[in-house]
Amino acid sequence: MVQNEFREKFGLLLGLVGVICFSLTLPATSIAVEYFGTTVVGLGRTVVAAILVAVVLVVQKEKLPSRRQFKSLLVVAIGAVLGFPILTSWAMEFLPVSHGAVELALLPLATAGFAMFRAGEVPSLKFWVSSIIASLAVIAYALHLGFGQLQYADLALLGAVMILGLSYAEGGKLAKELGSWQVIAWAIMIGAPFFVVPVGLHLTIEMLHAPIQAWISFIYLAVVSQFLAYVAWYSGMAMGGIARVSQIQYLQPFLMILFASVFLDESITFFTLVIAVIVICSVISGKNAPVSRKRTVSEKN
């Protein structure tokens, strides 16, 4: 019992580390995409990450995933390696980081929803109430900013939320049997070969003269956002439960706004702080809410 409690708490801590790392993704993307473009930033980060991952896989002498595991890895690759990076990179060409951060706050709800179908988790009523309160707080924040009608970039972000939510649930489930870093590592190796040509076609000599902050941002996206952050995140979900750990993501938009303020000079208002407090309280409540588990179809077979 004590061991399980420690495992869950450590899982939540790893999830928090992952969220902090992810929170720098949009600010870094906003900086990098200005100099390297959507394709290089969205897909090029995976190509660079694949070099690091290939070395790790060889050194660790990892065996190839099974056919069943490969199907799950394909879902992770489509979401975390292809869909989310390219959709957010494109959206960040048209939207401020604070705008994107708010819409990505719906990610925990999407992750918890997919966890019910893919990982057999059944969150309690208290969990859903906490999650809905956090979502409503985020929506109130969006209305306060006065975004108006949805743009194509908004739809891209909402699509990114759905596809990444499925990827998170699938990866968190698979991490229990394959290992956390192995999940994202193999997903990167699956996607990277398809990205080499399009990235190569969009490389230009002018990119070599990009400022140092653009290069630092791109390296961060490739090494941390695309690989190391996922290692912490999938480990956290495997240990603490997908639905429960996903609640920590409600902190992500406010961390993004904080980092945007530090690195991009975007302002932080008093209303933002009030909403952040409400969200944090909801996360604490949701963290302590019971989440039961039923056997999935694959486990029954």
UniProtKB/TrEMBL annotation:
Protein's UniProt keywords contain Protein biosynthesis: no
Domain named EamA is located at: 10-139, 153-284
**Pfam families linked:** EamA (PF00892)
Keywords from the named record: Membrane, Transmembrane, Transmembrane helix
Q: What is one GO cellular-component annotation here?
A: membrane
Protein topology in the membrane? Multi-pass membrane protein
Q: Which spans of this chain does the record mark as coiled coil? A: none
| Transmembrane residue ranges | 12-33, 39-60, 72-91, 97-115, 127-144, 181-203, 215-236, 270-286
Q: Where in the cell is it found?
A: Endomembrane system
Family designation: Belongs to the EamA transporter family.
Q: Return the protein name.
A: Multidrug transporter
Q: Which species does this protein come from?
A: Halalkalibacter okhensis
